[in-house]
Design goal:
Elements: H1 3-15, H2 25-38, E1 42-48, E2 52-59, E3 65-67, H3 72-79, E4 83-85, H4 98-101, E5 106-113, E6 119-127, H5 135-157, E7 168-169, H6 170-183, E8 188-195, H7 199-209, H8 211-227, E9 235-238, E10 241-246, H9 252-269, E11 279-286, H10 292-306, E12 313-315, H11 318-338, E13 345-354, E14 360-371, E15 375-377, H12 379-387, H13 392-412, E16 419-423, H14 425-428, H15 433-444, E17 451-456, H16 457-461, H17 464-476, E18 480-486, H18 493-498, E19 503-506, H19 508-512, H20 518-533, E20 537-541, H21 546-555, E21 559-561, E22 569-570, H22 571-581
Parallel strand pairs: 7-9, 11-12, 14-16, 16-17, 17-18, 18-19, 19-20, 20-21
Antiparallel strand pairs: 1-2, 1-6, 2-3, 4-5, 5-6, 8-10, 8-11, 9-10, 13-14, 13-21, 13-22, 14-15
């Protein structure tokens, strides 16, 4: 179990306020039942603390706790599944355990798992003779463990009524959905979530008017929604969110329309009508096929989508949900990909050509990701996701060091071609980014002029003052700087003049549009003129034909990049590509 999950598990255990509490008959009753079902003298509700197994309930055990090390109940908590040791003395791992020293020979334990998936410990039975456990016995032990968890939640952990609204809360909503799953499997139902306000609106209310005003808003809304529900229970599932499930024979569209109208009426007279925006998320589901937690999760997603709709109502789309699930999975899995030096991630390079001579004068390093299960992930899909997360620093560091290592290798092979590397807006916000780049150059023994850092126009515009400062430090270190995707960021010429950039790369969308007519060509021509006025080399991206290359050269564009010259190449093929192409690149080159 990783440090983070173990920390969360221990935190969940402590929040339940169970450790070192007096014995309880409600737990002892279940423990005695486990002992009787197995016909064994020892049974316990064992909680896995940081370094001990503490017994909330015990039968046939004199001591209150034992060390966690080599305790089978710890394994149950970590694995979150039943464990059976038929002969402790014959087991290589547990033979030297404290439990074995007490004379115990048989062990069976079922996990105690919270709703969030944390393993708290085990309901266990212990015998002094080796034996097996039948499936019937283990089924009973699992049922009893579930009863223990129900008792824990009921007595020590979670209430079932929200103190503000006096409505059933989120835990009750999930339990009732589970009951629905059990009682009417296959039945089509519709869940609805009412979200009273955006997070920033809630913060504003509390900051200006105080939490009491927010509580009053919640009580008013609860009353309004409840008045419109005939045969549905209303649940208070989050600070300003309410949920309910419509009856199976109810017209969902009509019901939501009535509720929307009633909320609008109530909002018109509410003291918070000018500072809150209510929306409604709707999720059709089939009892038994969708887990309760997933129903609630998709309700939250539908409510978020509703904030993008003029009507303020959104019906859950499983297609959209799949896309969100994929985005989240890519974000989670990218961290693991970064930790595998020669695994999922790799760089490819795309040559850049001087349009006047056809000579390859530089190349761009591009990141590629081959996911072990999802296959090749397009950069246009995963890079924007990572750039909006804390993982962006790791992404840039990985590409920078891999590109510098490749440059060093090419230098040893006699190939001296500068390599450009993409930098995100977040990197420019890092106070020591320029210094880290210089340190990386020294570490790989690569001269500063051998790399070019590309920053998108929009990234350079974001936090402009800090961006200019970082770019000036990089430029002072002798590193070439480029504005990528030029033309898409709407920056002013006055601002561009402040940037110490050497290269302007015209976005490929403008290059590919040149075939449309003179107006589109005039736009590109003006961009080339801007680059010249700023005394920058101008590079055209996305060149796919000889005609486009010739036209751009006639406009005064300095360099070009695109499929006309070469698609992105594996790094090991780049040197061979240059040798095969020679110094004159006057025709398209196929994929390698």
């Amino acid at each position: 179990m990783g440090d983070i999950s173990e920390s969360a598990r221990l935190d969940a255990l402590r929040q339940l306020d169970l450790l070192d509490t007096p014995a309880s008959e409600s737990f002892d009753r279940i423990t005695r039942m486990a002992s009787q079902i197995f016909g064994l003298p020892i049974a316990a509700v064992s909680l896995t603390d940081k370094d001990r197994q503490w017994f909330k309930s015990r039968v046939g055990v004199a001591h209150q706790s034992i060390p966690r090390d080599r305790a089978p109940c710890a394994e149950v908590a970590e694995r979150r599944e039943p464990v059976v040791v038929e002969d402790i003395r014959a087991d290589a791992f547990y033979a030297q355990s404290v439990l074995a020293g007490t004379g115990a020979r048989f062990y069976a334990g079922a996990p105690l798992i919270t709703r969030e998936g944390h393993g708290l410990g085990a309901l266990c039975v212990i015998g002094v003779e080796p034996r097996t456990a039948t499936e019937l016995e283990m089924s009973a032990l699992r049922d009893l463990a579930a009863m223990v968890m129900a008792q824990i939640e009921l007595q020590h952990a979670f209430g079932r009524v929200d103190p503000i609204s006096k409505l059933a809360n989120r835990n009750q909503f999930l339990d009732d959905l589970a009951d629905l799953e059990r009682d009417t499997p296959g039945e089509q139902r519709v869940a609805v979530l009412v979200d009273l306000a955006r997070t920033d609106q809630i913060d504003g209310i509390v900051r200006v008017l105080g939490s009491g005003h927010l509580d009053q808003l919640v009580r008013e809304a609860a009353r309004t929604v409840r008045e419109r529900l005939e045969r549905s229970t209303l649940y208070h599932v989050a600070a300003t969110q309410f949920a309910f499930v419509l009856p199976p024979d109810y017209d969902a569209e009509q019901g939501v329309a009535l509720l929307t109208a009633r909320l609008a009426e109530a909002r018109a007279t509410s003291s918070s009508r000018f500072v809150t925006t209510s929306v409604i998320g709707v999720v059709p589901f089939m009892a038994g096929s969708t887990a309760p937690a997933d129903v609630l999760r998709t309700l939250h997603g539908a409510a978020q989508d509703a904030r993008l709709q003029e009507s303020g109502v959104s019906i859950h789309s499983y297609r959209v949900d799949d896309a969100h699930q994929r985005r989240f999975r890519l974000l989670q899995d990218f961290g693991e990909a970064l930790e595998q030096p020669d695994g999922q991630l790799r760089i490819v390079v795309q040559p850049r050509v001087a349009l006047a001579t056809g000579r390859c004068v530089a190349a761009e390093a591009l990141l590629r990701w081959r996911h072990p299960e999802l296959g090749e992930i397009a950069p246009g899909e995963f890079v924007p996701i990572i750039e909006q997360s804390a993982a962006v620093r790791g992404l840039t560091e990985w590409v920078l060091h891999r590109a510098l290592a490749q440059l060093a290798e090419w230098q040893r092979e006699g190939v001296r071609i500068p390599l450009s590397i993409n930098v995100s807006a977040s990197n420019l916000e890092e106070g020591n980014f320029a210094e880290r780049v210089v340190e990386a150059l020294r570490a790989h023994d690569v001269a500063p002029e051998m790399i070019e850092l590309e920053v998108t126009e929009s990234a350079a515009m974001k936090h402009a003052g800090r961006a200019v400062e970082q770019l000036r430090r990089l430029s002072a270190a002798g590193i070439t700087l480029a504005i990528d995707d030029f033309g898409t960021g709407y920056s002013s010429l006055a601002y561009l003049q402040q940037l110490p950039v050497d290269v302007i790369k015209i976005d490929q969308s403008f290059i590919r549009a040149m075939d449309a007519g003179e107006r589109e060509q005039a736009l590109v021509r003006s961009m080339v003129a801007v680059g010249e006025a700023l005394r920058c080399r101008v590079v055209a991206e996305g060149i796919e034909s000889e005609g486009a290359a010739e036209l751009l050269h006639a406009m005064g564009c300095d360099e070009g990049q695109g499929y006309h010259f070469s698609r992105p190449l594996p790094v090991e093929a780049f040197a061979a590509w240059i040798t095969q192409a020679g110094t004159e690149l006057t025709r398209p080159h196929a994929d390698t």
